[in-house]
Amino acid sequence: MDRCPTRTRRKRHASSQQPARRGRCPARHPRGADLLAGPTGVFNYRIPGLVGLGAVLDPESSECLNIGEATAASPVDSPKNLTDQTATVFLDFDCDGDTYAVLPAGAIRGTTVQFRSVVFN
Hints:
Strand order of the largest sheet: 2-1-4-7
Distance between the termini: 39 Å
CATH topology of the domain at 41-120: Gamma-B Crystallin, domain 1
CATH architecture of the domain at 41-120: Sandwich
Number of helices: 0
Strand content: 25-35%
């Protein structure tokens, strides 16, 4: 049986006054789990002219994402990086250009941060 017992007991040595201690199960990962998985969490942004937010759930790491709601005339803004990794947002598509902002995990920025693409690392 491939199950970790909830409690294990060690025998008490005759000369020891220490009580038996609980054992700990080794950390386990589900079979086939990718130990090098990308960021987890949600990355939110505001879409100007619309009510509500856009979102990217559990994005891929090191892969540039063009924001679908952004256009050449109107970028999205107000990023909220609620993932567990750093996000870099770019004003241009394809994570290109000199105008960008770095958002650590948990960072929230206002309407002054406008972007059309994002990459997580």
